[in-house]
């Protein structure tokens, strides 16, 4: 009896569905992700695009029996505290030895030392939106920031024709590469279009608190109507607050050119509320491109070292062509204003190897 019972139990075990082997599902690549801010809407959209692409990668990997990705996210936050926090976050991330790190730098120079640590540890780093000065990046993914500034400058030159110099105020942020490239592109466009200008004053702002302070300072420094022709703000993070302060003070004679494509800024263009042009990023595709690049890096596939995502010039004339932050990127079209480069090209600029 005991022998028969034992054989019966053994038969049941043999015919029961086998549990999946522990190694039947490949272990995902561990991806450290260091975000900058969740207070700047464009950056939130970039995160959504990045994480949606990670989900797409995982779905495809499951079907093909390949390794997917497991994200390990951290958020730095704004201001000087955010810069210091991201330095600590990147050092701690390196200590966990992920397969790759994706980072949106809060400061071009501040992360040079952590990047060099990652290089020494053999951990590839993909930066998006901003560059890191010092160390080696496996890939750098960003909007075509020079194109963004250039479109703004080109449009203002067409808006203010004639020999009189454009009386200009700049709201800049020289601590990260993207905003520097935007300002360079803006000034280059004015030169290329043959538009003379005079910079009355510069202020620094990149998020709402500093933007509000800049707007209030502009009102104090230029209290008379028609004392400023135009203001260029390097992003909507600070620029929206500048517009809000000036609009509430009744300074609707000022033309504002800005960058990012925040929906509130698009509303301002639609309502003819100071903002004349906003060169919009395709934030979702940008975040997705960073995730794609990181996945290619860990799989040892060819990756361009610099990947540029185009930007779109939102004006009263082009509103109906703009699909929003998440894309898709529209087809090329002829700009409805005078320009030396009459066509807007949706491919932006080629990636660089």
Number of helices: 10
Global outline: globular
Strand portion:
15-25%
Helix content percent band: 40-55%
- Give the neighbour order of strands across the main sheet: 2-1-3-4-5-11
Major sheet description: 6 strands, parallel
| Estimated radius of gyration | 25 Å
- The tally of beta strands, per DSSP, is 14
Kindly name the structural category: alpha/beta
The CATH class name of the largest domain reads Alpha Beta
Task: Specify the CATH architecture of the largest domain.
Answer: 3-Layer(aba) Sandwich
Distance between the termini: 75 Å
What name goes with the CATH superfamily of the largest domain? Answer: Response regulator
Query: The CATH topology of the largest domain is what?
Result: Rossmann fold
Helix and strand run: HEHEHEHEEHEHEHEHEHEHEEEE
Task: Give your account of this protein's structure.
The protein has helices spanning 2-15, 41-64, 79-95, 112-121, 145-159, 177-192, 208-221, 236-248, 263-270, 283-298; strands at 29-35, 69-75, 100-103, 125-128, 139-143, 166-172, 197-204, 230-233, 255-260, 275-281, 306-309, 311-314, 333-334, 343-344. 48% of the residues are buried. The chain is an alpha/beta fold. The strands form three sheets. A six-stranded parallel beta sheet has the order 2-1-3-4-5-11, with helices on both faces. The longest helix is centred in the first third of the chain and has 24 residues, at 41-64. 42% of the residues lie in helices and 20% in strands. The chain is built from ten helices and 14 strands. The protein folds into two domains: 29-144 and 285-308, Response regulator (Rossmann fold, 3-Layer(aba) Sandwich), CATH 3.40.50; 145-280 and 312-325, 3-Layer(aba) Sandwich (Rossmann fold), CATH 3.40.50. α2 packs across α10 and α7 packs across α8 (236-248).
